[in-house]
Amino acid sequence: MVPKTPPAAPPRVPHDLLASTQFLLKRVGMAAKERALAEYEQAGFSPYHHAVLAFLSEDSPDTQGEIADALGYDRGQLVGLLDELEEKGLVERRRDPDDRRRHIVRVTGAGTKALGRLRGIAAALDDEFLVPLDGDERETLHGLLARLAEHHDPRCTLQPPAASP
Amino acid sequence: MVPKTPPAAPPRVPHDLLASTQFLLKRVGMAAKERALAEYEQAGFSPYHHAVLAFLSEDSPDTQGEIADALGYDRGQLVGLLDELEEKGLVERRRDPDDRRRHIVRVTGAGTKALGRLRGIAAALDDEFLVPLDGDERETLHGLLARLAEHHDPRCTLQPPAASP
DNA sequence: TATTGTTATACTCTATAACTATA
DNA sequence: TATAGTTATAGAGTATAACAATA
Lengths: 165, 165
Description:
The structure is a homodimer. Chain A is mostly helical and about 160 residues long. Chain A contains seven helices and three strands. The first copy, chain A, has helices at about 15-20, 20-40, 45-60, 65-70, 75-85, 110-130, 135-150; strands at about 60-65, 90-95, 100-105. In chain A, helix 2 (about 20-40) crosses helix 6 (about 110-130) and helix 3 (about 45-60) crosses helix 6 (about 110-130). The longest helix of chain A is centred in the first third of the chain and has 22 residues, at about 20-40. Mean pLDDT of chain A is about 90; it is low at about 1-5. At the A-B interface, helix 1, helix 2, helix 3, helix 4 and helix 6 of A face helix 1, helix 2, helix 3, helix 4 and helix 6 of B. Chain A binds a DNA duplex (23 and 23 nucleotides) through helix 5 and strand 3.
């Protein structure tokens, strides 16, 4: 069989699209997401579990509503995540005595330990994903992304304006 | 009712996560995607339509398989996209006389005109999404993302190594 | 009546796998 | 038999809305 295009010209994304930063953001963000899902899954977790544990380790104890709001998750979705974390003994749910509708969630010792492993996974993912960039470039990228994230989602602000009363 | 946290501390994403570049990439990429979907939809299109038209305007005519491979779309998914574009008279499908299994797809004049509008939407999206960054920063970000995209997906390479026979 | 957590439902997207017509 | 396009099916993921307990 004689192919019509001898070196079989590799299919390319049109540079019209490659010229668009938001197109690249979508593409690269998607690739990062897929890569992360696969890596967390090998450890029996998802990035969502990591997010919940990380949040609780900084602001624990908290109610489910606060966790969902902070991370931008649906409350129904969070229920399942907490079920899984609780089943592994990484978090605890208790009724709030002051408002018995609420559940107080808190990380356990095992949860803190698991968080350490998840941090390792995240660091390894960063390292692998950013391999074409040197140290300075990674910092630059991170800074620019942080500013975009903060602009499009106030919850991603690092230092909330310390309101002094 | 007296709230326990008087200024109602705003829910924040843990900085553990904000310190991870791939986390930011996922978040910002998602935000870009949602924003883009909404904007294209107002014009009666999706970013996928734009991608197909952009590819055809650079490499037309092509077969459906080539389009799908270049853009990374599933072939079944592409059928629907082409149906919609064809219905609007923006592309044409014809059987390839040399291989009657294949469909030759090509942009119409109306398709080229529509592509112009879609380019405008993409440019406006870029401008709006990157508003916290100045010109130099946007260029820097674009360059870094382009290198990541190219590394994780060879189809995103701008200049394919010109194979001289 | 409004809210918290929960459960159930529906809807979207995607991935898989038949199916046809050609080769 | 294998491939291009098409269609149909199933699965994951997400969003919506009903629900019970409490305020």
